[in-house]
Amino acid sequence: MNDSNTQHLSELIKMFYEQAKGPDYQYEVRIVQSWEKVVGKFIASHTTDIFIRNGILHARIDSDALRNELCYSKTVLISNLNQCVGRDILKEIVFS
């Protein structure tokens, strides 16, 4: 098959996600996957839900004290999570 319109499957999947979810979707997925690496196992084990919407990472933490302490580290967390993907994707973190 020598078709000039041939593309690799990986390119098609990337194009699909960019059109369906936006151009930063793959980076957002990698940030969520990097959460445990950045915050450690203890904090990750107290994270019950995590997702990104409009450049804001939303993390549900099941401990009030831990949530309060994490609020003081938002800037560092944003920087470290963005470094994991090599782009400035996150603008804010909201803990609930």
How would you describe what is shown here?
With 96 residues, the chain is α+β, with helices and mostly antiparallel strands. The chain has five helices and three strands; from the N terminus they run αααββααβ. It has helices at 9-21, 25-39, 41-45, 64-71, 74-85, and strands at residues 47-53, 56-61, 92-95. The longest helix is centred in the middle third of the chain and has 15 residues, at 25-39. The model has no long low-confidence stretch (mean pLDDT 88).
Could you describe the largest sheet, including whether it forms a barrel?
Answer: 3 strands, mixed
Over the alpha carbons, how many angstroms does the gyration radius reach?
A: 17 Å
β-strand number? 3
Helix/strand order: HHHEEHHE
In whole angstroms, the N-to-C terminal distance is 54 Å
Q: Count the DSSP helices.
A: 5
Q: What average pLDDT do the residues reach? A: 88
**CATH structural fold name:** GMP Synthetase, Chain A, domain 3
The percentage helix is 55-70%
Give a brief outline of the structure.
With 96 residues, the chain is of the alpha+beta class. The protein is built from 5 helices and 3 strands.
Topology, pairings included?
Blueprint: H1 9-21, H2 25-39, H3 41-45, E1 47-53, E2 56-61, H4 64-71, H5 74-85, E3 92-95
Helix pairs in contact: 2-5
Key traits:
96 residues; alpha+beta; GMP Synthetase, Chain A, domain 3; 3-stranded mixed β-sheet; 5 helices; 55% helix
